[in-house]
Specification:
Helices cover 28% and strands 23% of the residues. By secondary structure, it is α/β, with parallel strands linked by helices. It has one domain: Alpha-Beta Complex (Spore Coat Polysaccharide Biosynthesis Protein SpsA, Chain A). Strand 4, helix 2 and strand 5 form a beta-alpha-beta unit. The protein starts with a strand and ends with a helix.
Length: 250
């Protein structure tokens, strides 16, 4: 039986590096609208919500046809905002869809939903990763790397280049994965996760998924086709517009 699944796009005004980016125009539309329209094409979502604490974002989201949930401005992460947004709504799975990915793949959203329904797998969460070969990005602390086991279960996430290659002659044997920041959660697990304090590894690496992993979570890491185009700063807008044009969407 298919589990009822809600997709949530967390959107806040006060981004440190790019205030108001949710409504910043990208190829003629607000960034949030690109994300909402792409996510709306996912077939496994029974509901799609925009969760925000800002009336400007709420008004714009309503105008584009989105259902909006107003959430607390005190949330430290998008995960906390997602947990509040689904409160009182019937759903077994919640998917946290990043609000700054205008080329989010609807198919990946569907695959994440399906991963939590694999018979006998009993995953708590699912996320995604893509192969990473650029030595500069491998070394960059702004690029999160993932390591998984033979079943596709996450072993660790880090800003460090993992796995570490001790012998340079074996460097070609290492397969690096770049983490793609989209998460599917079983509802009960999500509700328990946001009640936990930040964990030591989470604080050290500043990666909230480590709170789940450190607590014993079973996290499925799927293969994604690409790592998307995130808009983190105003300088990323031209790159996102070029990618949308190349994909025939703008």
């Amino acid at each position: 039986m298919t589990m009822r699944t809600i997709g949530v796009i967390p959107a806040r005004w006060g981004s440190t590096r790019f205030p108001g980016k949710s409504l910043h125009p990208v190829a003629g539309k607000p960034l949030l609208q690109w994300v909402f329209e792409r996510a709306s094409r996912a077939r496994e979502l029974d509901e799609l919500l925009v969760a925000t604490d800002d009336e400007r974002i709420a008004s714009a989201a309503l105008a584009m046809g989105a259902e909006v949930v107003m959430t607390s401005p005190a949330h430290p992460s998008g995960t906390d905002r997602v947990a509040e947004a689904i409160r009182g709504r019937p759903a077994a799975v919640a998917i946290n869809i990043q609000g700054d990915e205008p080329l989010i793949d609807p198919g990946l959203i569907d695959r994440l939903a399906a991963a939590l329904q694999e018979p006998g797998a009993a995953w708590d969460m699912a996320t995604a990763a893509v192969p990473l070969t650029d030595p500069v990005l491998i070394a960059s602390p702004s690029v999160v790397k993932a390591v998984r086991d033979a079943r596709g279960a996450a072993l660790y996430f880090s800003r460090a280049p993992i796995p570490f290659v001790r012998d340079a002659s074996d460097r070609t044997a290492a397969r690096y994965l770049r983490h793609v920041g989209i998460y599917a959660y079983r509802r009960e697990f999500l509700e328990a996760l946001v009640r936990r304090p930040r964990s030591p590894l989470e604080i050290s690496e500043s990666l909230e998924q480590l709170r789940a992993l450190e607590g014993g979570a079973r996290i499925r890491v799927l293969d994604a086709e690409d790592d998307g185009v995130g808009v983190d700063t105003p300088d990323d807008v031209p790159r996102a517009e070029a990618a949308l044009r190349a994909a025939g969407l703008a």
